[in-house]
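Input sequence (162 aa), recorded before submission:
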Amino acid sequence: IIFLPNITTFINKFKSGNIEENQEIITTGRLKCSLNTTTTNLDKDYYLVFKFTDNKLERTEFTITTKGDVTLDEETLNKLAATCKQLKENVDGMKGVTIQCNYTDGKLEEIQTFDLSVVDNEKLNSAFSESGGNNPEYKYGQDIDGIEKNMNASGYSCKREK
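Predicted structure, token format:
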């Protein structure tokens, strides 16, 4: 809801061509993206944080929460939890990678943190393929504008913060 005098002022500025863009472009900070999906059995919430400096990617943190019925979806959730645990074991001791798996009744929370400046991408790809997971494959120094564009195209809601 916009206050009527504000609408009049805006229209007058628009007609005169004096619309000012006050929106600051953030080149150092965090890009936070989220997506909620629902299938017949499971609900998945994706929360991704990309940390960047001068529009170049440095770190990522992904939180994936999967929820289902405690009894009906137990087998599926157990398999997902086993995949997460296997991935955690595969990356154990690897520089720049942390995986956490929090599994309670009907809910699996997986947190993946990557310091891309020290991650060995070859080892990381191997760890993901051995566990059956998908490596997000973001690279150190990757352009954040491209990442934001791809995330929005994939249905995520993204916001930059300082």
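Checked by second reader. DSSP finds four helices and six strands in the chain.
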